[in-house]
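subagent[fold] <- orchestrator: predict structure for attached chain, return tokens only, no commentary.
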Amino acid sequence: MIAFPSTGSIKYMGRPPGARNADFTAQRAVLVAKLAKRLMATGGARASMRELAATADVSVATLQHYFRDRAGAMIAVLEDVHTGGAEHLAAVASGPTGTLRASLRWFLDYLSDGLVDYGLDHLHEFGIVAGVDDAAIGPAYLEHVLEPTLRALEARLERHQAAGQLRPCDLRVAAIQIVAPLLVAVLHQRALGGAAVRPMALDAFVDAHLDALVRAYATAPPRRR
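subagent[fold] -> orchestrator:
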């Protein structure tokens, strides 16, 4: 607040409507963490503004102050996930590689563990369900979740290409062909109930997927003379 002297006393000018508290960023971060738990839970993508406010233990007006609207709250969570995942993206992009098979094995296991054991599948489920046909949330999911994963993998594949281990190809297409089948398989088994409809061993799927990728993308070993 701004102070003005006035006839032996101090008058304080309050914040104008819409002005932010000094601790706005800190309070917003607390709310984002609370919202994330609800949005990643069952039905989170369909949660109303009132339900999100109840989850965060604040009023709807307070949520509107920090995020403007429901889409803004959801996008804030996606942005926070992107920031928090920087270390993992860096590991994909610039971590040790070895052979193409070993590198793809590591990536598929890393992604599979994240999806199955650390709730990354809930993040993708939320982003896809909330983002379909939504002009704001859909692009935000791509910008902060899916595309960073693809770009990190493209950077890894580019290193293999430079080393002569990966055939000339469109790296973006290759990254999608690597990520998409595993993501669909996990969503099929978990979010969509495929484990009851048509069970599939994910470990065996990853093994088969890896073999297919190596056949498709690995350069032929030099012939012996």
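orchestrator: received. Logging for downstream: The beta strands are 2-6, 9-13. Residues 1-14 have pLDDT under 50 and may be disordered.
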